[in-house]
Amino acid sequence: MREKALLAFGMLALALSLPPFPLAPCIIIVMTLLTLRGARVSLGAWLRFVSIPAGFLLTAGLSMMFVISSHGISYAPSSLQPVLGLLLRSFAAICCLLFFALTTPLGDLLSALRKLGMPIEIVEISLLMYRLVFLVLETANAMNMAQAARLGQHDRKQQLRSLGLLLANLFPRVMSKACRMEHGLAARGWSGEFHVLQAAQPSSFIRLAWISLLLGLLLLVGVFYA
């Protein structure tokens, strides 16, 4: 946990504080390789997670390269380099956060937050919200599959009608399941705190040394080209 946090947030600090050329491409390559090869996250899963923020960045970057004036919309050549630097810096930060998010179990993250002194109420609410997000997705997926099995999506009109019915019934279904989950927790004597089993993982001095060396090398590269 400490090694991943040092690597991810150290890279994030370098990406945000130093010039993007040529440091940001180096961070993108390193963090992507560590995520795909080191953590063995599949390429398809990584692309699914990165596509939404990358699309947002691309849309924002394209809009920043044009100027709206009384003569209409015109391209601003002088904005190309700043926009490219901003996109590279932002994408490097996204790669750092994705590495940490895709390789850190929620139990480890909550345990680390407790050790850092975060109030237990905030930690428990975060865990419940995390569970409820997946509860909403599971319920919506089950309702969608049931509609498809009943030929509720064979044409555009039926698809729109089925979507309206799904949205109208999703919230009551989710609230019902959430109430049942609350009753189940109360029946098990829940006192307001989740105790998550976490295996002891001592930090490796060798890994910390290699990570520190990598961060130091990238820091030198960024300072040299600043």
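(the above was protein one; protein two follows)
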Amino acid sequence: GNADVDYVRQLPPHKAFHIIRDPRDIVISAYYSHRYSHATDGWPELTQYRELLKSMTEEEGLLEEIRFRSRSFKHLESWDFDNPDIHEIRFEEFVKADAKTLIGAFDFLGLLDNSDYNFGKRTKGIYREFAAFLRANTPVSIPRSLLGDTMSVPDFFAITWRNRFAAKSRGRKEDTANVRSHYRKGQSGEWSDVFTSEHKDLFKSLYPGLVPRLGYEDDDNW
């Protein structure tokens, strides 16, 4: 899915970051996720849709996924990219330099403490790690207010390192796909190897101008 600008406009004053991705790659990623790996908890409709995809060839399934993306692509089409309170990030830039990109986003949100690192901050970082462990493994929850509103840059790097693609995929390289994993491949541009002329024609007919609007092509002649 994608953020709905009409919903965002109803929120109280805030700052946020918004990640966009080449919608053609979204189709590829969503197809494999919906067919194999996305959890169905809280989304019972996915079970029926998954069975539909399994009954189709990959080429047919991708055509169906292009149609299925109408709601999220409508949100992309109508998104306000000029909102000064929302930091825009391209997914393609993020996967190339995730820590650098996220530092820019978190700094924009005012969540990073850029002052000198000291023993007190290290202790606070350990406390935050312990609180995260408790939340994940026990019914005990430490109020977030006790953790403070910012984190040090070293602690931030530690979190991004633990959540890198290789860690999430259990050591698999980014150019090695596992279609049954939610962390399938970790690379962009796969649509160009997968889309047939039929996929391209259907995409352009349903979402004219979307790809160039997002800056991924100069026009719809791709």
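Reviewer note on protein two: The two ends are 24 Å apart (CA to CA).
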